[in-house]
Amino acid sequence: MNALQQLGHNALVALQRLGRASLFLWALLMGLPSLLLRLPLLIQQVFSVGVLSLVIVVVAGLFVGMVLGLQGYYTLVDFGAEESLGVMVALSLVRELGPVVAALLFAGRAGSALTAEIGLMKATEQLSGMEMMAVDPLKRVIAPRFFAGVLSMPLLAAIFSAVGVMGGYIAGVGLLGVDAGAFWSQMQARVDFYEDIMNGVIKSIAFGIVVTWIAVFEGYDAVPTSEGVSRATTRTVVYASLAVLGLDFVLTALMFGEV
Amino acid sequence: MQNTRLIETMVGAFVVAGIAALFMLAMKVSNLNAFANVDGYEVSAQFENIGGLKVLSAVSVGGVRIGRVSAIDFDQEDYEAVVTMTIDPKYDRLPTDTSASIFTSGLLGEQYIGFEPGGEELFLKDGDQITLTQSAMVLEQIIGQFIFSKASEGASE
Predict the structure, then answer these.
(1) How many CB atoms lie within 10 A of CB A60?
(2) Which residue of chain A comes nearest to B14, CA vs CA?
(3) Residues B49, B124: one domain?
(4) Residue pLDDT tens, chain B, 157 long
(5) Are B25 and A161 in contact (CB under 8 A)?
(6) What is the DSSP-derived secondary structure letter of residue B75?
(7) B25 and A161 in contact by Cβ < 8 A?
(8) Between chains, do B31 and A81 touch, taking CB under 8 Å as contact?
(9) A17: which residues sit within 8 A by CB, 6+ positions away?
(10) Same domain, B11 and B51
(11) What's the domain count of chain B?
(12) Which of A120, A180, B51, B119 is the most exposed place for a label (fewest CB within 10 A)?
């Protein structure tokens, strides 16, 4: 009976959190018009969320692309189809790996930083201080960070995919001697702009919303102690990564299901 | 103030890099650019069977790509496939009796149209039709014929 009560309690707490998170997201979206009047705040956050994540995304993209090139070559060469390497690298990057891996890196690099920053602001009572001065911390602190994340994620995913294709080119054409013309022409013949690339962009926008939403909410909802902030940061990375992977399956099933 | 300008510049560079990456994906990786450059002259050819030929498949002479398939249609009067090809305008000296065949690159590769230039003095121009054509080899049909001939051999013995 006690265990059952515990389960019910946990379920109610989880539902409450979900409800708070939804109201929080709504309040953030309502903050968009006033944010457009204060663009410097947004630019500042795009810098710390997007630009500073650039290095890890570029390096990871290059290596993921090169590994795809090497690994794909060893499979395809058995069928004499190594010319299809470009198609394989580009499709896997644009449709899946680009948005997903970029979002995972983004959750680890930018999401954790967002949670820690907001959580610490809360723990040191900066947020309540703002409220005292009649400044809405949701609009002044959190909305810029949220929209900066939503804006940066598709750009980072596009950069990841483009650099990854370059990495695949370096590994496939440079190291393994696949014909460069066939690499590009087969890729162009088989990758569709709307079906593949635009759907990848839509995915990355969805991941950007989810990851940043989780990150800012965990920070805002953190227990205002050093332990609470550290827990919230961990939760951000775990929840955001799991959400990205789960959402990726759903989106893939929706987008490419009938193909 | 200097700091703000630096940050704004870097954000600008980041946004430009992101859009450039998307642009590169669109132009270099996908087939979007195929719709952008449709210059060249068009010739068409009728085939009984085009196999796995697709729009954007290559058109080549002696292994050199001179154009792409721009449209595939079905003629309801002859019951044949009509393939329209866009040929690069710099290759404007193809004789009118050029023959077109559908080949496969490798055993399982992509299908493409190969031209075999004839000896005519007149050259193909926009809107012309190639009359000498050879259909695609469909692997299943060849295997089917082979099995059928083997079976009839066995029956006559």
Answers:
(1) 20
(2) A51
(3) yes
(4) 567 788 888 888 888 888 888 888 877 777 655 544 557 888 999 988 888 787 777 888 888 888 888 888 998 988 889 999 888 888 888 888 889 998 887 666 678 889 988 888 888 888 888 888 888 877 788 888 888 888 888 776 6
(5) yes
(6) E
(7) yes
(8) no
(9) A221
(10) no
(11) 2
(12) B119
> 3-class DSSP state for residue A126?
helix
C-alpha count within 13 angstroms, C-beta hemisphere, residue A194:
1
Q: Look at residue B148 and tell me if it is in a domain.
A: no
- What is the Cα–Cα distance from B153 to B119, expressed in whole angstroms? 42
Strands B80-87 and B64-75: antiparallel
Token pair for A54:
């650039």
Length of chain A: 259
How close B143 comes to chain A (CA, Å)? Answer: 20
- Which residue in chain A has the smallest CA separation from B18? A155
Residue B151 belongs to a domain = no
Cα distance between residue A147 and residue A36, in whole Å: 10
User: Are B117 and B46 members of one domain?
Assistant: yes
Report the gap between the CA of B104 and the closest CA in chain A (Å). 13
In a domain, B35, yes or no: no
In this complex, is the C-beta atom of A83 within 8 Å of any C-beta atom belonging to chain B?
yes
Judged by a CB distance cut-off of 8 A, whether residue A204 touches chain B is no
Structural domain includes residue B132: yes
One domain for residues B26 and B45: no
B32's tokens: 């979007």
ipTM of the complex: 0.70
Cβ–Cβ contact A79 with B under 8 A? yes
CA neighbours closer than 13 Å in the CB half-sphere of residue B89: 6
State the angle between helix axes of A2-30 and A199-220 in degrees (0 to 180), rounded to the nearest 10. Answer: 110
- Cβ of A188 within 8 Å of Cβ of B109? The answer is no
By C-alpha distance, the chain A residue nearest B16 is: A155
Domain membership of residue B109 as a residue range: 41-142
Q: Residue A80 and residue B29: Cβ atoms within 8 Å?
A: no
B21 and B47 inside one domain: no
* Predicted model pTM: 0.73
Spell out the alpha helix ranges (H) of A31-142.
32-36, 39-49, 54-76, 85-91, 98-106, 112-123, 126-132, 137
Contact check, Cβ <8 Å, B22/A158: yes
**B136: DSSP letter:** P
